[in-house]
């Protein structure tokens, strides 16, 4: 290579490296992750995250490693050592998370954990820099779903989210009346829910309460697996119930759990040897698991498998009766 060739080569290399560094670090906090989110103060809810642009349904909003994971039991003893094991930036990030204002200094760490902890398995709570800041939203306020994958969490948009809209997820299921939801959240997380659904007018609240309670009651009956395949079960009645839940959810704008709901019907179809119905419901389930948990989630892949080969369903032919139960559009 000539001297000028070498010079051009070095210049190109330097430019390339700068571009890579800019991509990695130049996009601001946190550490160059290109997240379409902003942390803002929101009236009545402390701080929250808002979308900085329109996000389509099924969009992966965030993928984040926790600052730490802690056993939910025996917190008092575990928390101080967990915090002292964090490096300085992570510890600072922890203390920047929100907590109720009327807390004595000595209780702040536990209050932060209680307010920001994300339950990731039956026994474990995780704290995240960003995900911990997603506020709880009841019913149709919920526009995202968080799920845990081995060592990190993902947050997907369950419906299209507009630029400037706050991101909400459910800390606890919200298929309860407003009063029950608020009492649950106060007992578990120490805050009074002021999500848009809890702030509806009394008339709207009553309508929404009736829909949510009906959804809960019908789902409980539907998910009672023991009924499947038993002689007294009426598969067509079960499918009617599932469609009723789907319809109530549509009116309410509450879409969480649709993947599982459609999976349930695909299971009924499988148990009663209806391969066409099983295929269609499994496809619908895969679509909704895709929005909630990601198109690469195990649930989505499992339902795609079943839609391609209904007889591979673990409940295939569980009942001796054959029944045509019909697809989602019938
Ligand atoms: C929770 O953690 C404790 C202590 O590590 C363990 O003994 C127990 O089996 C766990 N429970 C569940 C439900 O995982
Ligand atoms: C699928 O399940 C396996 C085993 O439980 C787990 O290790 C893996 O992370 C899961 N993958 C996704 C994408 O959820």
Residue stretches low in confidence (pLDDT < 50, at least 5 long) are 20-33
Overall tally of domains = 2
CATH homologous superfamily title of the largest domain = SET domain
Helix content: 40-55%
Oligomer: single chain
CATH topology (fold) name of the largest domain: Beta-clip-like
Strand portion: 5-15%
Shape: globular
SS field, number of helical segments: 10
The string of secondary-structure elements, in order, is HEEEEHHHEEEEEEHHHHHH
**Could you give the order of strands across the largest sheet?**
3-9-8
Structural category:
alpha+beta
Descriptive notes:
By secondary structure, this protein is of the alpha+beta class. The protein has two domains: 37-189, Beta-clip-like; 202-312, no CATH class. Helix content is 44%, strand content 13%. The chain has helices spanning 3-25, 75-84, 88-95, 108-116, 178-189, 202-222, 235-252, 258-271, 275-293, 298-308; strands spanning 37-41, 47-51, 60-64, 68-71, 118-121, 124-127, 135-136, 144-149, 152-157, 168-169. A three-stranded antiparallel beta sheet has the order 3-9-8. A three-stranded antiparallel beta sheet has the order 4-6-5, with helices on one face. Strand 8 (144-149) and strand 9 (152-157) form a beta hairpin. The longest helix has 23 residues, at 3-25. The chain is globular and about 70 Å long. It starts with a helix and ends in a 22-residue tail after the last helix. 35% of the residues are buried. The model is unreliable at 20-33 (pLDDT under 50). The structure holds 2-acetamido-2-deoxy-beta-D-glucopyranose (NAG) (2 copies). Residues 149-150, 296-298 line the site of one 2-acetamido-2-deoxy-beta-D-glucopyranose.
């Amino acid at each position: 290579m000539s001297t000028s060739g070498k010079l051009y080569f070095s210049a190109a290399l330097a430019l390339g490296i700068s571009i890579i560094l800019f991509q990695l670090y130049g996009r601001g906090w946190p550490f160059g992750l290109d997240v379409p989110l902003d942390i803002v103060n929101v009236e009545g809810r402390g701080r929250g995250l808002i979308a900085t642009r329109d996000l389509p349904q099924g969009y992966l909003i965030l993928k984040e490693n926790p600052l730490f994971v802690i056993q939910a039991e025996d917190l008092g003893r575990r928390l101080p050592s967990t915090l002292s094991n964090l490096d300085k930036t992570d510890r600072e990030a922890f203390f920047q998370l929100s907590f109720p204002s009327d807390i004595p200094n000595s209780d702040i760490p536990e209050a932060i954990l209680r307010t920001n902890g994300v339950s990731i398995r039956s026994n474990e709570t995780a704290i995240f820099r960003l995900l911990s800041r997603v506020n709880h939203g009841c019913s149709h306020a919920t526009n995202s779903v968080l799920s845990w994958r081995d060592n990190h969490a993902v947050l997907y948009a369950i419906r299209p989210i507009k630029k400037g809209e706050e991101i909400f997820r459910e800390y606890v299921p919200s298929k309860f009346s407003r009063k029950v939801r608020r009492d649950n959240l106060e007992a578990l997380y120490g805050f009074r829910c002021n999500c848009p659904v809890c702030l509806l007018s009394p008339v709207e609240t009553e309508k929404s309460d009736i829909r949510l309670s009906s959804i809960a009651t019908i789902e409980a009956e539907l998910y009672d697996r023991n009924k499947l395949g038993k002689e007294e079960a009426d598969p067509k009645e079960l499918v009617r119930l599932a469609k009723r839940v789907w319809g109530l959810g549509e009116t309410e704008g509450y879409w969480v759990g649709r993947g599982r709901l459609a999976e349930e019907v695909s299971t009924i179809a499988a148990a009663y040897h209806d391969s066409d119905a099983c295929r269609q419901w499994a496809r619908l389930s895969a679509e909704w698991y895709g929005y909630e948990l990601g198109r690469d989630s195990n649930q989505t892949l499992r339902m795609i498998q079943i839609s391609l080969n209904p007889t591979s369903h673990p409940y295939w032919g569980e009942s001796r009766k054959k029944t045509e139960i019909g697809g989602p559009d019938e």
